[in-house]
Structure formats: C-alpha cells, structure tokens
Amino acid sequence: MKIGLFIPCYVDQFYPKVGIATYELLQKLGCEVHFPMGQTCCGQPMANSGYAHLTKGCDANFIANFSGFDYIVCPSGSCVLHVKDHLHDEKQEEKATAIRNTVYELTEFITDVLKIDHIDGRFPFKVGMHVSCHGQRGLKLSQMSELNAPFFSKPEQLLHSIKDLDLVALTRKDECCGFGGTFCVTEEAVSVKMGQDRIKDHESHDVDYITGGDMSCLMHLDGILKRQKSKIKTIHIAEILNSLEN
Q1: pTM for the complete prediction?
Q2: Where are the alpha helices (DSSP H) in the chain?
Q3: Could you report the per-residue pLDDT of 29-74, keeping only the tens digit for each?
Q4: 80: buried, middle or exposed (CB in 10 Å: 19+, 13-18, 0-12)?
Q5: SS3 at position 201
Q6: Mind listing the pLDDT tens digit for each residue in 117-137?
Q7: Which of 105, 142, 162, 240 is most buried as measured by Cβ atoms within 10 A of its Cβ?
Q8: In the chain, where are the structural domains located?
Q9: What's the number of CA atoms in the CB half-sphere (13 Å) around residue 55?
Q10: Does residue 20 sit in helix, strand or coil?
C-alpha cells in the first residue's frame, strides 16, 4: 500500500517530531510511506479567512505532489477536511476528485482502512483527550455529545490499547479549545478564555498530558499552559501511538 504523507505547515515548521512519529507509525503498520518534498500549504488558512479564490496555486501544487498514491494520510483533521471539501482544479478535476476520496486523517486511516483496533505501545501517564472540532464534526472521528446516539471515538479506541495509559473521562469531552485557526488572531480574548476553560477540565482530572489529533489546537493549549506555568504537557496522538512497549 503506497501512502503519501501529508504534513501540515505548523507541524513541519514547529513540531517535526509529530511528522516523524506519523511516518514511523505508518511504516510499523506495514505501509510504504512517501513524503513528497514539493508539498506546501493546502490553502486552509486563506479559505478560512474568506480568500478561497486565492488557493488555486495551493490546489495545483497539492495535486502535483499527491496524485498517484493509494492513500494520503495526515496527522491533522482540519487540513484533511479542507482538502476533502475544497480541493478543485478545473484543469485536473479528475485527479482532484481522486485525492479528495483518498485523503484520511491518521486515526481514521488506521481504524477504517487498515482495520486496526489495537496498537502495541506503552505510555504510563494520565491522559486527557482533546477532541478537535474539524475531526469530530467534519470527519466524524467521534460521536458528538449533544446527539442521542451511541458513543464512539476512533482516536480513543486506539489509545485504550496502549499499555499503562490512563485515559480520563472529561466532563465536557467535546468542547472547543478556542483555537479556530484565524479566530485566535481576530478574537484573541475569546479564544484564550475558551482555551483556559478547556484546560480547567483537564486540570480537574489531574492529567499529565493533553493529547489530540490536531497540533494546532494543542499548540494553542500549550501556549496557555506555559503561561500558567502548568505541569501539564501536550502531545500529539501520533507520538503516543508510536511509543514502544517495554
């Protein structure tokens, strides 16, 4: 199975260990993983700010880099959702359609395509799972708490298989952290207050780490934690799933 590894800008620039963990994890799970060196931004920041018409260059470049793979996998629900919903190119629409149908968020790919529900690993810490909005409400990675429907969570399903990991049940398990991409710039006061509220829920459960599938949300929470001089750390789910059992 030939996989194209799609790494978001902020992971590439600020959290390369997340990209490396994703690459290593997919290899361990039997995938042939390739990292297209010419990949750049998928265009989500412009589209979210109302400038989707300026993303044509990003779209064309994405198609040039990721055409021909069996699947495209990314450790970010928000970037995956953007590509699924917005990747178009009037000159290459057939290729764009193929990519939209084969791009997956990491945990979604592991559970839905590879059909894996157990990963051998060890992470001896108390962990809170932050559910990002795009992943939950856009990609349906987990059930929304306001619905009267059976609970499911693809990320949590995988985390439960990690040895010695104590996954806590948060009080408001799918509340937004306030990052929201450019929202945290244009409405910084509201964004910070939402982040502080999200952290209080984790603090009340005495977690060691906050994990999640979007490093952007974790970056937002990490900034607040550091300013509060909190002992709680953030870690992307790929880094936990890539841990070795020993």
Answers
A1: 0.94
A2: 9-14, 16-28, 44-48, 56-66, 77-86, 93-100, 106-108, 133, 154-159, 183-186, 188-204, 215-227, 237-241
A3: 999 999 999 999 998 888 888 888 889 999 999 999 999 999 999 9
A4: buried
A5: helix
A6: 899 999 999 999 999 999 999
A7: 105
A8: 2-113, 126-242
A9: 22
A10: helix
